[in-house]
Amino acid sequence: MPPVEQSGRAADSRAHGTEASPGQLERWTRVKALFLEALQYPDSERSAFVAQASAGDADLREELDSLLASEKAAASFCESPAAGLIGAAVLPGPETAPRLAPGTQLGAYEITGFIAAGGMGAVYRARHTLLGREVAIKTIGQGLADDAARRRLIREAHHASILTHPNICAIHDVGEADGVPFIVMTYVNGRTLREMVGESVLSIRDALEYGTQIAGALEHAHEHGIIHRDLKSSNIVIDAKGEAIVLDFGLARRLPDDAGVQSREPTLTRPDALAGTLSHMAPEVLRGDRADTRSDVWALGVLLYELVMGELPFTGRTPFETSSAILGDAPKPMNPRVPLALRLVIERCLIKDPAGRYQRAQTVADALDAIKRRRAWPLVGRLLVSARRRTLYAAAAAALLLPLLVVAGGRLRAEFGATFSKRISTLALLPLENATGDPGADYYAEGITDALISQLGAASDIRVLSRASTARAARTAKTVTEIGAQLGADAIVQGALHRSPDQITIDVRLVRPSDGRVLWSETYERNAREVLALEADVVRALAGAIQLTMKPEARERLATIRAVSPDVYEAYLKGRYEWNQRTPKSLHLAIEHFTRAVELDPTYAPAHAALADCFNQLGTVMVGTGSPREYRPRAAAEAIKALQIDPYSAEAHAALGYVWHYQWRWADAEKEFRRAIELNPSYSLVRIWYANLLMSRLRMKEALEQVTAARDLDPFSLIVNTNVGWVLDRAGRHEDAIAQLTQTLALDSTYVQARWRLAGMLASAGRFTEALNEGNRVVTLSDSSAPALELLAIIDARAGRRAEARALLDDLRLRSRREYVPSGLIAELFDALGDVDSTLTWLDKAFAEQSNAIAYLAVDYQNHPIQRDPRFQALLSRTGLK
Question: What is the per-residue DSSP string for 611-679?
Answer without folding.
Answer: HHHHHHHHTSSSS--S-HHHHHHHHHHHHHHHHHH-TT-HHHHHHHHHHHHHTT-HHHHHHHHHHHHHH
